[in-house]
Write a structure and sequence with these properties.
This protein has 13 helices and twelve strands. Strand 9, helix 9 and strand 10 form a beta-alpha-beta unit. Helix 8 crosses helix 9. The longest helix has 23 residues. Bound molecules: zinc ion (ZN).
């Protein structure tokens, strides 16, 4: 189910305002916010994300046309409908020159109003999402798991304009001082410009059911990812297997889910997708370098080992270095980095 469209109605006449509001709520199922003057409307537009705007022209103070001109600076993509009592061609021309998307003359038929606003809000929502890029959620049991598994791919996503979210289920206190590991996680997330959710489940005792499932469900609901990367079930670490299991339950509505390789993956780990990370191996090494408390004690963090692993997988994926994935579900396109328009503008070499 689509989240209801969020629309701003700007109208000083209370009767017309009420009519438009009722039509948009009852007939179009929208969430409606009201403003009775242009200045208030502009304030609301700065504070909230709307999918479309409908404004009157004649209002005390700044007119609807002034508002349209200002909104075009602030939100160039926002669909704008201008309504007026005068069916005058002059108004239409002026409104269009101010880059309104549609011009409606009062009285407006409710069915037409609902249909036009729905179509425009749909376009506004799509433009807004496209401009923001897609959200990538990487889930790991411990600090550094996702960086080892898909650090290069996350860096490529970031460079393509996608937003990165990292969810780490425990602070890894069995592998070092949890305070150090928290700082290391934050430093790595910073390099990726990622949002970090650092949970506090007990290291080595993470379960496959609740609270693990509800934690992941909560983050999925909050950030609405289109791609999730997580552990494989083919892993000898019990926490990794538990997080894999919980993730498959909690991400059942996410279009694309794939499993990365951990150093503890078994020979049963069977990747079926190999994403070249050429150009992003340095970024991956920089992420891993954040985890200094581990790099001294964990042979799998040694740079030549990490690079040799990526080099090896390139025999399947091409390029010089690859990260392997076991794809559970792929309906949005793994390895598609960034928004469609950016992809055309700046394709990443060799991404499959
Ligand atoms: Zn781990």
């Amino acid at each position: 189910m689509t989240t209801p469209y969020h629309v701003l109605v700007v109208e000083d006449d209370p009767d017309v305002a009420e009519f438009v509001k009722l039509v948009l709520i009852k007939r179009a199922g929208m969430v409606v916010q009201m403003a009775n003057n242009a200045n208030l409307a502009f304030e609301l537009l700065q504070q909230h994300e709307f999918d479309a705007l409908i404004t009157d022209i004649e209002m005390p103070g700044a007119s609807g046309l002034d508002l349209v001109a200002r909104v075009r600076q602030l939100r160039p993509q926002l669909p704008i409908v201008v309504m007026t009592a005068h069916a005058s061609v002059d108004y239409a021309v002026t409104a269009l020159r101010h880059a309104a998307d549609e011009f409606l003359t009062k009285p407006i038929a409710s069915a037409y109003l609902a249909a036009r606003m729905t179509a425009l809000a749909e376009r506004g929502r799509a433009d807004r999402i496209a401009a923001a890029g897609q959200v990538i959620l990487a889930i790991g049991a411990h600090p550094d798991d996702v960086e080892i598994g898909v650090g290069g791919l996350l860096a490529a996503h970031r460079a393509g304009g996608d937003s990165i979210v990292i969810l780490t289920m425990s602070r890894g206190d069995r592998g070092g001082d949890p305070n150090d590991r928290q700082h290391e996680s934050l430093a790595s997330a910073d390099l990726l410009d990622a949002r970090l959710f650092l949970e506090d489940l007990v290291d080595t005792k993470i379960g496959p059911a609740d609270p693990t499932v509800s934690i992941i469900e909560r983050v999925v609901a909050e950030v609405a990812p289109s791609i999730v990367y997580t552990h494989s079930s083919h892993d000898r670490h019990q926490d990794h297997r538990a997080v894999h299991q919980a993730t498959t339950v909690a991400t059942r509505r996410v279009p694309t889910v794939a499993c990365y390789q951990s150093p503890s993956a078994t020979v049963d780990y069977q990747p079926n997708r190999f994403v070249p990370i050429d150009g992003f191996t340095d970024a991956k090494m920089a992420l891993l370098a954040c985890f200094a408390s581990q790099s001294d004690v964990r042979a799998y963090l040694e740079p030549d080992f990490v690079l040799a692993t990526a080099r090896y997988w390139s025999r399947f994926g091409g390029g010089r270095s690859c990260e392997p994935l076991e794809v559970i579900r792929d309906t949005s396109g793994i390895g598609q980095v960034g928004t469609p328009s950016r992809r055309v503008a700046a394709p990443l070499p060799g991404l499959v």
